[in-house]
UniProtKB/TrEMBL annotation:
InterPro entries: G_ERA_dom (IPR030388), GTP-bd (IPR006073), GTPase_Era-like (IPR005662), KH_dom-like_a/b (IPR015946), P-loop_NTPase (IPR027417), Small_GTP-bd (IPR005225)
Organism: Vreelandella sulfidaeris
Membrane topology: Peripheral membrane protein
Name this protein carries in UniProt: GTPase Era
Domain Era-type G: residue ranges: 4-175
Span list, region G5: 154-156
A Gene Ontology term for the protein's cellular component: plasma membrane
Assembly information from the UniProt record: Monomer.
Lineage of producing organism: Bacteria, Pseudomonadati, Pseudomonadota, Gammaproteobacteria, Oceanospirillales
């Protein structure tokens, strides 16, 4: 049996569940999550190999409508990163929230107009629906906005129909040798992942008190047989202060 392998971009507006979906597919945390929009700043690859099929998922920053606020520069950067991820992919998973179509969803759909790869619509958070029957007419309405390769209602948080979504994605992966070893799950280094996990915890604890420009610098990453020691520096650019965290 021949091998298949391809790149799959996961796109959508901020805070719609893109990172949660990729973590669910991979079975472990690769992309950080929080309730704050634009938590994901970088393209993060998640690699899943099943038998002769290798999925290379690209979690992207949330696409959104540009505003004139003080975060315009970082917002533009993340929009560009998300758009760049759409180049040369084999399939796109466009994720939206259940029964709620927003201007930002429409903006993402607009960006997908010139994408040649098949686009699968994943309708997330269907576990929160009161009346399941309300979903079908709404799916028909949304489906008329574009010729989607498939429309799959899912719950990224609980895993509902995520396997069905993967089956639909697999249909569009080309025949190819696998690009990564079978046991590799991401293209990011351990230092990068450590910095992202620290940023996730800080964002969850402090939320809106943090500036969007908050960064995490790993000053020391030392592994021994029994423990991994991580020293992280969090510069507070607004005040010039710095905080250290040691694990």
């Amino acid at each position: 049996m021949s091998q298949t392998c391809g790149f799959v971009a996961i796109v959508g507006r901020p805070n719609v569940g893109k990172s949660t979906l990729m973590n669910r597919i991979l079975g472990q945390k690769i992309s950080i999550t929080s309730r704050r929009p634009q938590t994901t700043r970088h393209q993060v690859m998640g690699i899943k190999t099943e038998d002769e099929t290798q999925f290379i998922y690209v979690d992207t920053p949330g696409m959104h409508i540009m505003s004139k606020d003080r975060n315009k520069a970082i917002n533009r950067f993340m929009n560009q990163a998300a758009t760049q991820a759409l180049r040369d992919v084999d399939c796109v998973v466009f994720i939206i929230d259940r029964t709620r179509w927003t201007e930002e969803d429409q903006a993402v759909l607009k960006r997908l107009e010139h994408v040649k790869a098949p686009v699968i619509l994943a309708v997330n958070k269907v576990d929160r629906l009161g009346e399941k029957g309300d979903l079908l007419p709404w799916l028909a309405e949304v489906g008329a906005r574009r010729d989607f390769a498939a429309i799959v209602p899912i719950s990224a948080k609980h895993g509902t129909q995520v396997d069905t979504l993967e089956e639909e994605v697999a249909k569009h992966l080309p025949e190819s040798v696998h690009f990564f070893p079978e046991d590799q799950i991401t293209d990011k280094s351990l230092r990068f992942m450590a910095a992202e996990l620290v940023r996730e915890k800080v964002m969850r604890q402090l939320g809106d008190e943090l500036p969007y420009q908050m960064t995490v610098e790993i000053e020391e990453f030392r592994e021994t047989e029994r423990v991994t020691h991580i020293s992280a520096l969090i510069p507070c650019r607004a005040t010039g202060a710095e905080s250290y965290f040691d694990w």
